[in-house]
Amino acid sequence: MPSTATKRYCFQLTVRPELLDEYIARHTPVWPEMLAEIAAAGRRNYSLFLGDGGRLIGYYETDDDEAARAYLANSEVAARWEAEMGRFFVGLEGRPDQAATPLTEIFNLHDQLTAAQAAATATENESTAS
After folding, report:
1. Where does this protein have coiled-coil stretches (predicted)?
2. What is the mean pLDDT of the chain?
3. Which residues pair with 57 in a beta bridge?
């Protein structure tokens, strides 16, 4: 059974350097119907960051990424968008929204602060119980 807790996802792609200006223009703005499909899929707080050499980092949050991916894979709007976007990327097999290289999260400030606060509270409770 999929978890209902919000999870963070990050991915990396490389935009062809000769197409950077056009890639940026295509996202300024994205088609309204594509924005609606991303939201309907359950992805939130979605951002793309462009670095040197065409390095593209994407980030989003969702409660069920498997369901979000399936929704977008079956979306006619997303299929049209991804068909147009595929030519912008280096070394990509398949649709960009389905084939991007995922990155592993190794640190999150909120999660670690929450864990540290919980540990401190537990230690405090143990001290007062003794």
Report:
1. none
2. 92
3. 12, 49
| Active-site residue, from 2, 7, 22, 27 | 27
pLDDT, position 115: 93
Q: pLDDT digit string (tens) for 59-74?
A: 999 999 999 999 999 9
Beta-bridged to residue 58, according to DSSP, are 11, 48
**How far is 88 from 21, CA to CA, in rounded Å?**
11
Question: Among residues 89, 96, 110, which one has the least CA distance to residue 6?
Answer: 110
pLDDT per residue as tens digits for the range 106-122? 999 999 999 999 999 88
Query: Amino acid identity, residue 97?
Result: D
To the query of whether residue 110 is one of the catalytic residues in this protein, the response is no
> What is the residue extent of each domain of the chain?
7-129
Cβ 57 vs Cβ 10: under 8 Å:
yes
Phi first, then psi: what are they for 78, rounded to 5°? -65, -35
Rounded to 5 degrees, what are φ and ψ at 27?
-105, 10
